Amino acid sequence: MAYEIPVTQARAELAELINRVVYGGERVVVTRHGKPLVALVSAADLERLEALAEAAQPSEEQTISTVTSIGSVPPAGPGAGHRRFGIAAEHRGPDAT
Questions:
Q1: Which of 31, 36, 3 has its CA nearest to residue 17?
Q2: Pick from 52, 37, 53: nearest CA to 2
Q3: Which tens digit of pLDDT belongs to each residue from 47-85?
Q4: Residues 77, 65: contact at Cβ < 8 Å?
Q5: What is the C-alpha separation between 34 and 46, in angstroms, rounded?
Q6: pTM above 0.90, yes or no
Q7: Residue 52: enclosing H or E segment and its boundaries?
């Protein structure tokens, strides 16, 4: 769990908070009116967070490799007599069989 501290107190104790993060391995959450504003984390933690965020974003080169089915979407709601069509597709990665 992170150590929480109000922003007014954090201003006065910034050097100590930095030491807690760097040398104590703690994470510090600075709050205002009891709500989290920012977090102080080590540079190593920040690198890990950035790597995770980058890995979670799909690559621009990622494409759908296979369309497994195509079907019509049944009409719904008022005026259902009008025929509407749609495509249902399921993406399976290259290792899927």
A1: 3
A2: 37
A3: 999 999 888 876 655 555 666 666 665 665 555 555 555
A4: no
A5: 24
A6: no
A7: helix 43-56
